[in-house]
Amino acid sequence: MTDGKVNILLVDDHAENLLALEALLSDLGQNLIRANSGLEALRLLLNQEFAVILLDVDMPILNGFETAALVRQRERSRHTPIIFLTAVNKAEQHVMRGFALGAVDYLTKPFVPEVLRSKVVAFVELHKKTEEVKRQAELLKQMVGELADNNDQIRKLNVELQSQRDFVSTALDTADSIIVVLDAEKKVVRASRAFERVLGYSLDEVKGRTLASFFFSAGPWAEMPHAENYWTAKDGTNRLIAWSTTRLMTGPAEHIILTAIDITERKRAEEEREQFIRSEAARVEAEASERRAAFLAEASTMLASTIDYEKTLINISRLAIPTFADWCFVYLSLEGEEISSALIAHSDPEKEYLAQQVELRPQDLSSHKLPVVRVFQTGTPELFSDISEEELRETVPDEQKFEALRQLGLRSAVVVPIPGRHAVLGVIGFVSPKPDRYTSTELIFAQELARRISLALENARLYREAQQANRAKDEFLATLSHELRTPLNAILGWTQILRAKRLDEVTTTRAFEAIERNAKAQAELIEDMLDVSRIITGRLRLELQPVEIASAVDAALDSVRPTADVKGVKLECTINGDAGIISGDPHRLQQIVWNLLSNAVKFTPSGGLVRVQLERADSNVKLTVRDTGKGISPHFLPYVFDRFRQAETMISRTAGGLGLGLSIARHLVELHGGVIEASSEGEGRGATFTVTFPFRETPVVGIQNAVQNAS
Asked: Burial level of 317, CB count in 10 A (0-12/13-18/19+)?
């Protein structure tokens, strides 16, 4: 039934009869549902409920009586009113059969429409009233059930309330914690037995009074939701009470529940435990400090015992295992900027061999999580507390090296720089497979060890440099002796020949020329030695005056050209006439150019080329001497301007000279405020020397003393 309407089922196998019934009953305002057979009527009864059924008796397949019998068999439609409609079966036995099947009426056709409508209306109203009665009965039944449920709930609530009261009383009596109930005026209403047991006051003594009247340090309650302070018990002892308050609204009244525990003994135990932990930590730290001190002492002894730094570093690395690390690595950069391979020591020899085979580079251990190269570049130590396997895989994309590091074990590490005088000499890292192995204490210890390694490396470097300097001086003295003796032998030889007075005029002239030439060569060697002495002692003097650098270049070219022609070396010169005037010593400027040119000619083979270029470069005058000679090795290039240093030893040298020309040239250039630089692409590829002098529009005239340079 929808919107107050009921369903009326019309069953007839003739469509015109169904239409007639619909027209007759349509003004009743109910739902008229048609069925053109008994089977269809049964199907509709399965899903819907009807107030009355108008059923035709004479129908094929399943007549009205058979349909009615099936309708009465279903529980849902057993009491549905049925009005039989027939036009032929008016016999009494048929009528009786219809009533026997539960029909409420039996109408024969033609029937009076008003009669039919009135009967249908009566059954519709009856159905509605029946449904209303059912609804009211159901509602009444529901109300009775709800009332019964409410009564049960009230009984349960009373039981629960009593149970809760009993529970609260039991909890207050048995709780180990101090529980106090205060009213809105902060006066005691209830208190647990623990309150009396701990503080000595019974409920009768404190009820109706404020706690602050007993315990002066216990309040103020409104401003302090929780605190820890000492309360003086009834026996005079001080008890440390940790308490907290909770506001509770019970109807219109407000209560405060105070919950507290006596933590006096626990606090005392914690203090004793903390004192024990501090003393134990101090003992452990003292032992660790003693071990670190012993390690540093042993490492210092080991470092001082040899100048073989590589062997020493490996020994120190192994000395740190397993006390300070499971394995460690060392990277050094002692010569140039290239970083050496890792010196790795491990507690497990097989893993140490694995690390050496894989050859881990600093770049393999460099990321935001493990920046070994950054330590190299910045000189700042790094502490890595926990490096996960995923982060390690991101750091080392190479599968073989990642697997090697995973086997070595890398979860925490401390990496510190090995400082040098001017730059970082290397890094040393201590590694553990355990997370959080290292702290700031180990970081400081590692820095101290790195500092001592730095001192040992610096001492080894100074020792090697001293040895090299001694060898250089020895070779220089040998070279000096040779260079001085060569012209002296020539002078002595020609002198003896002249004393024999058996020479013709041509030979005599040749003898005097040889003596003069060798005497000048010897004088030049001595002058170079004196210049070096003046430079070292700071007594070299410059007579400054306005000088056209082009004239100094021309003069030097004229001096060197005969030697170049004899050797077969071609000289090319490009001089910018507008190069300008500088403030300098003409003689010393010519000496600078001559040293560079003679050096280029000396080391350029026959058929080679020496180019000289003089030009103006911004506010400077730039002189470039470029040759196609034997070049300079990368190893020797940093020392090319050092005194007493030559690329060739005394045994292997093929060119003459003391090796002082470039050193003197550098000092003279610097005294003029200029800069000299050397470059070469390697041996056999020539060399280029560039000198830059500052240009001065108003030259300075005067005498300048050289400043002592101890380099």
From this structure: buried
Give the DSSP H or E segment for 552: helix 549-567
Instruction: Specify whether the CB–CB gap between 433 and 340 falls below 8 A.
Output: no
The whole-angstrom separation of Cα 105 and Cα 76 is 20
- Is the C-alpha dihedral spanning 516, 522, 523, 528 positive or negative? positive
Please, where are the H alpha helices in 175-263?
193-199, 203-206
Inform me whether the pLDDT recorded for 433 exceeds 80.
yes
Question: What element of type H or E holds 218?
Answer: none
pLDDT at 23: 82
| Model pLDDT, residue 643 | 67
Tokens 């070096």 belong to 532
Q: What distance in Å separates the CA atoms of residue 387 and residue 369, rounded to the nearest whole number?
A: 7
pLDDT mean over 400-410: 80
Distance of alpha carbon 72 from alpha carbon 64, whole angstroms? 12
Three-class HEC string of 92-128:
HHHHHHHHHCCCCEEEECCCCHHHHHHHHHHHHHHHH
Question: In 3D, which of 172, 176, 237 has the Cα closest to residue 207?
Answer: 172
Tokens at 244, concatenated? 């907290």
Q: Report CA-CA distances (Å) from 384 to 274, 380, 388.
A: 29, 13, 11
**Considering the chain, what is the average pLDDT of its residues?**
76
Q: Give the residue from 680, 666, 675, 676 showing the smallest Cα distance to 604.
A: 680
| SS3 label, residue 151 | helix
User: If you average pLDDT over residues 127-136, what whole number do you get?
Assistant: 81
User: Per-residue pLDDT for 399 more than 50?
Assistant: yes
CA dist 706 → 181, 212, 591 (Å): 97, 91, 16
Task: Tell me the residue ranges of DSSP E strands in 127-186.
Answer: 178-182
- CB contact set of 280 (below 8 Å; sequence gap of 6+): none
Q: Report the chain's terminal Cα–Cα distance, integer Å.
A: 117
The pLDDT of residue 440 is: 82
Q: How many CA atoms lie within 13 A of 369 on its CB side?
A: 16
Question: Which backbone phi and psi does 345 adopt, to 5 degrees?
Answer: -120, 135
**Cα–Cα separations (whole angstroms), residue 208 to 184, 204, 246, 543:** 11, 9, 19, 111
Tell me if 691 sits within 8 A of 674, measured CB to CB.
yes
Helix (H) or strand (E) holding 582: strand 581-584
Quickly list H helices, 568-607: 586-602
- 0.85 exceeded by pTM: no
Q: Which residues contact 168 (CB under 8 A, 6 or more apart)?
A: none
Q: 127 exposed, middle or buried (CB, 10 Å; 0-12, 13-18, 19+)?
A: buried
**Whether the Cβ atoms of residue 11 and residue 67 lie closer than 8 Å to each other:** yes
Here the tokens at position 162 are 């009593």
Burial (0-12, 13-18, 19+ Cβ within 10 Å), 663: buried
Tell how far CA 689 is from the center of its chain.
47
By mean pLDDT, which of 300-309, 318-327, 488-497, 595-604 is the weakest?
Answer: 300-309
Contact (CB, 8 A) for 85 and 55: yes
